[in-house]
Specification:
Elements lengths: L3 E11 L4 E10 L3 E5 L6 H8 L7 E6 L2 E2 L4 H5 L2 E4 L11 H9 L7 H11 L12 H14 L4 E5 L7 H15 L5 E6 L2 H7 L2 E6 L2 E7 H6 L1 E6 L4 H6 L2 E5 L2 E7 L10 E3 L3 H8 L9
Parallel strand pairs: 3-8, 3-9, 6-7, 7-8
Antiparallel strand pairs: 1-2, 1-4, 4-5, 9-10, 11-13, 11-14, 12-13
Helix pairs in contact: 4-5
């Protein structure tokens, strides 16, 4: 069995005003990866490039060890993707949409679909626009679990959900991977979601990944530092920083410590990492 559900190497896409720049990360089989960045950081573009919804300008994608290029039809049968919006089908009844969806998957199990509808309390007679945002995400999960997808990719699945619905969704992600043969990649800008269920993190800003790996290792390998005077050396190595008349704070790798002029340092949380990444235009991150 392949060790990785998803391997992304040097993925690029140029929209003129925005570029993906050599995006790379690996998602091991049986785990959940949070793909985190502020709105506009490049999360959706990366996901669409992985799935060839848009054609990337460069790079490679492997799913369970096989190249997406040349095996796209086969591999997409093992992938479940949802943005949770169903924008093009909002006037379609859920059950009718499911029948169309099932036609693309030889192994679609309608008995399982009915059982999952009942479990999630989904009214299949309702049109998709009549389902709440949380119900639409649950509906997409029900579809995916009915054809035994192995890789689940969700684009901002908890955006717009109330706290109860978000918590239920994160519990469902943990349930998906509990047998060790399925993997979940979900993009988000809600950092508390990552604390609850992500095993791995990939952090992106301005189209470029600046950290990817085991969540706890990423956090423990960085530090928020502060002091009175920002030096050129700190500017050079900072992932991002803030300056006021009272002094500075910055996010750095612990491997770059110690530094002169630093009065304190502390482990960051995910929200701080996201915040300082958005300040990276001030640094010389390569």
């Amino acid at each position: 069995m392949c060790d990785y559900a998803l391997e992304v190497q040097n993925l690029c896409k140029n929209y003129g005003s925005f570029c993906l720049k050599d995006v790379s990360f690996d998602l091991p089989v049986g785990y959940i990866m949070g793909f985190v960045g502020r709105n506009g950081a490049g999360k959706s573009t990366t996901i669409k490039s992985i799935l060839k919804i848009v054609e990337p300008a460069g790079g490679s994608v492997k799913v369970f060890g096989k190249d997406m290029a040349g095996n796209e039809t086969e591999l997409k049968k093992t992938i479940a993707y949802s943005s949770g919006t169903f924008e093009s089908f909002r006037g379609t009844q859920a059950d009718k949409f499911a029948r169309v969806y099932a036609s693309f998957y030889d192994g679609f199990d309608f008995d399982r679909y009915e059982a999952l509808k009942k479990r999630f309390d989904i009214d299949g007679k309702k049109k998709l626009r009549e389902l709440s945002a949380g119900m639409r995400v649950k509906f997409s999960v029900a579809l995916a679990l009915s054809h035994e997808a192995k890789l689940f990719i969700f684009d901002e699945p908890t955006s717009g959900l109330d706290p109860v619905a978000r918590d239920e969704m994160l519990d469902l992600f943990r349930e998906i991977v509990e047998n060790g043969d399925k993997s979940v990649l979900f993009s988000t800008h809600i950092t508390s979601d990552l604390d609850k269920c992500a095993d791995y993190l990939t952090l992106i800003d301005d189209g470029k990944v600046y950290a990817s790996g085991v969540k706890d290792e990423i956090i423990s390998s960085h530090a928020v530092i502060g002091g009175g005077e920002m030096t050129d050396e700190i500017k050079r190595i900072a992932i991002g920083y803030k300056q006021t008349s009272l002094g500075f704070t910055a996010l750095v790798k612990k491997s770059d410590l110690p530094l002169e002029g630093v009065e304190y340092s502390a482990d960051p949380d995910i929200e701080q990492m996201l915040l300082y990444a958005s300040k990276r235009a001030h640094s010389s991150l390569s």
